[in-house]
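User: Small ask, check this?
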Amino acid sequence: MLKKDKRSSPVIGCYTSNIDGHDIQYMVKRSARCRYARIEFKSDTGLSVVIPRHYALERVPVLLQEKITWITRQITKHRLNLNSIRTQRIAIGNFISFLGRNIQLTKASIIEDSREHAYLIEDKLIVNCADAELEEVVTSWYRKQAFLILKQKVDETISLLGVEYTRLMIRGQKTRWGSCSRKGTLSFNWKLMMFSEPVIDYVVLHEVAHLKEMNHSKRFWAIVEWYCPECHEHRKWLRLYGQQIAGLTGE
């Protein structure tokens, strides 16, 4: 859940350095608790460099140069994973993403009227339906999970911010991950369920924060940053990769 973490590393900024002919994009954070500079790579936030309090910013490109082999390997692996997800379709045997991990669509051995049309067992989404109903069943399952998971996250976040909402809706918008109306209706895209939880938490926080500030003013972003110091990383990740991952369609 989103809470202000006193140990979080303040973000200095996002940079691009040309290392061995490659433009490397990264974020620099400064941490008072960090003794040595270190490089991190996460699938949802990308490349980050965490540096101690008195570490000169000008030294970062040199550090990247020293670790270029490792960095290139991580970026290549990440791109391969994204390509793998992007080319998948809703079809038996294929993998789709749920809460940032891959699950495999698997046909039930026998179609049973008494069971749910789709149910998750470990890393397999078992579908209990005819082939012609597959896309509808999978989408319905995602929507159901979206309501259950997002309802809990919204309730926790409004308690944190001390606000109230009137209604929660799960939709299938093509260009938006979420929205907040002036009447207090929160709407979220069911395809958020394909992302990792830190990204989902950010989107929920973003929309709930609009119940305090119905704009994108400095005061609004101050609220979001207070509870989610990495909000700009998540926002950038959504812009770069969100549509690729959530662009799954039926066969």
Q: What stands out?
A: The chain has a mean pLDDT of 84. Helices lie at 60-66, 68-86, 134-161, 197-209, 218-227, 231-245. The two ends are 36 Å apart (CA to CA).
